[in-house]
Amino acid sequence: MQTPAFPPPLNARLQSMDRYQAKAISLAASNDPALLNLSVCEPAFGPPDACLDGIEREDLSLAAFLDGAKRQEDSRGNPALRQAIADWYARRYGLAVDPEREILVTHGGIEAMTLAVLATTEAGDRVALSDPALARYAQAVEVLGRRGERIARSLGGDEFAAAAALPDGVRALIVNSPENPTGYVASATDWTVLGHEAAARRCWVIHDERYDTMAFERPHRPAALEPALAPNAVLVNSLSKKFGLPGLRVGWLAAPAALIEQAAKAHDYLYLGVNPQYQRIAIRLLDRRHDSWLDDMAGMMAERAWIARQTLTEELGFQWPRQPLGGMFLFPEVSRLYRSMPASYRTPGYSIGEAVARYLQESRGVATLPGAVYGERGAASLRLALCGSQQVFEAALDRLRSIRSQRWHGPWERAA
């Protein structure tokens, strides 16, 4: 067959987009053993010890493997897992969800988010995102041919309520609570105001609640608990972060039956069912006996957040205009550190967060994520992940304390 003179065209939209920046930075940092990595969200904890024996003896047995590998699972998810998810909402939040009609098991939270946007909007529709917000939202919206609309939030108080005036024509609003990267947790007032706004505009609210068990300063409330949002709330959740198993890739959508019906079609067309063996493990994890373990992990995140805020003071160049209320991350503002660090790092064309992240990585051996990854309003901040090992957490804080001395002598030090 004759070779064509030039290759056929590829997807222009994808070609115009960069690789997911946060993942690229985290992978690069992971490949340098001299770095203490606070950029990556790979929990050192989990799963609960009480699960391990059953996972080893039953879920990872040859019989379980063959059962999962030799058949295709119900595309909506194992009925026992959907019941476990419904039980999760009932016991933790008093929220009734029909396991037959209102739950779809997905390949992680990312697929759940993609299906939520796909099912609630058409190509060209406007989808509202807060600023800052997880970069994956904007990228998923763009890949699907929708238009992302950034909504700036003020600091402190009821942040979503203060920014609830949605642009005209918005078909869906994505809310992350507890939030990556800021640690903000939506208040009861937030949900009430958003409920009225969304109802008035006939707008879907997609609530990414993957860090739901890690709300430590303000209680977590699924959007569907708000009466005005019950008909138009979509809950996105997963097991990855809360149970420390990001490679398990089991998530779900919980939403009104009509939406689940359409999302299930797309799930069938694009993905098919989730690994049956992993769904067995998911059922085990969601058992109520592990709720106290989840509470302990939330307590650990709260303690680390407090220690980090006490250590990373204004004297060192870290400011905390927004106090973290939950989740696995800190998002300090670092303009003061930017002004005090060596001039060679203040490179034109780099945001404050990008310059400071480079300085901390090259001079202190601590990898962080620049806040510009999450939107313009995060450009003067850094994201620090709290979910690594205790050893890495403590050692990273020790290195960051050394900013005061302006020098740190170590094998990772590079020329400015």
TrEMBL record:
Keyword annotations of the record: Aminotransferase, Pyridoxal phosphate, Transferase
Keyword Transferase: yes
Keyword Transferase on entry: yes
GO terms, molecular function: transaminase activity
InterPro entries (UniProt xref): Aminotransferase_I/II_large, AspAT/PAT-like, NHTrfase_class1_PyrdxlP-BS, PyrdxlP-dep_Trfase, PyrdxlP-dep_Trfase_major
Aminotransferase class I/classII large domain span: 36-400
A Pfam family annotated for this UniProt entry: Aminotran_1_2
EC number of this enzyme: 2.6.1.-
Entry-linked CDD domains: AAT_like
Cofactor: pyridoxal 5'-phosphate
Gene3D superfamilies from the UniProt entry: Type I PLP-dependent aspartate aminotransferase-like (Major domain)
Family listed: Belongs to the class-I pyridoxal-phosphate-dependent aminotransferase family.
Protein name per its UniProtKB record: Aminotransferase
